[in-house]
């Protein structure tokens, strides 16, 4: 094999390797979905959410998050996890911000709702992370997955 053919083989091999790496990177990016197991809220945000929850949610959902008052659903445990499993976190955010508290729907701000949502994730053993939950539009890309 002369030098030109050898160089041609090296260049073609490099191009194939680069193309393969690019395809792999695209597939890996498309296949990765952020979930509630990826630490999508901070402990401080959940602590803030706990205060808001105590003031506005315990009347119906109770301190234990067991629900039951005025037909309020549980916000913790198997049924809660089953109800939201696989859905975008934005769905749960939307439910809270538009219908809660039941005696004054829509009175929570976006930030208060995000904080309460962080508290609910913490109570359902989803791990905390380094960045706070939000903004609301970003929740479309986070899938609710119960902790193992």
Please name the defining characteristics of this protein.
148 residues; mainly alpha; Cytochrome Bc1 Complex, Chain D, domain 2; two-stranded parallel sheet; 6 helices; 2 strands; 53% helix; globular
Task: Indicate the topology.
Elements: H1 3-31, E1 34-35, H2 43-56, H3 58-61, H4 78-84, H5 89-99, H6 110-123, E2 142-143
Parallel strand pairs: 1-2
Helix pairs in contact: 2-6, 5-6
Verbal overview:
- This protein is mainly α.
- The chain has two domains: 32 residues; 110 residues, Cytochrome c-like domain (Cytochrome Bc1 Complex, Chain D, domain 2, Orthogonal Bundle).
- The protein is 53% helix and 3% strand.
- It contains six helices and two strands; from the N terminus they run αβαααααβ.
- A two-stranded parallel sheet has the order 1-2.
- Helix 2 crosses helix 6.
- The longest helix is centred in the first third of the chain and has 29 residues.
- About 18% of the residues have low confidence.
């Amino acid at each position: 094999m002369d030098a030109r053919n050898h160089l041609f083989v090296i260049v073609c091999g490099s191009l194939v390797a680069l193309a393969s790496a690019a395809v792999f990177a695209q597939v890996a990016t498309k296949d990765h979905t952020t979930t509630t197991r990826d630490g999508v809220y901070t402990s401080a945000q959940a602590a803030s959410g706990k205060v808001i929850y105590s003031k506005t949610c315990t009347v119906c959902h109770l301190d234990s998050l067991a629900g039951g008052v005025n037909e309020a659903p549980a916000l913790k445990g198997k049924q809660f996890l089953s109800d939201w499993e696989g859905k975008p976190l934005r769905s749960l955010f939307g439910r809270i911000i538009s219908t809660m508290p039941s005696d004054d729907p829509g009175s929570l701000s976006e930030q208060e709702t995000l904080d309460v949502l962080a508290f609910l994730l913490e109570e359902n053993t989803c791990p905390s992370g380094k960045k706070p939950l939000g903004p609301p539009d970003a929740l479309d890309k986070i899938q609710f997955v119960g902790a193992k």
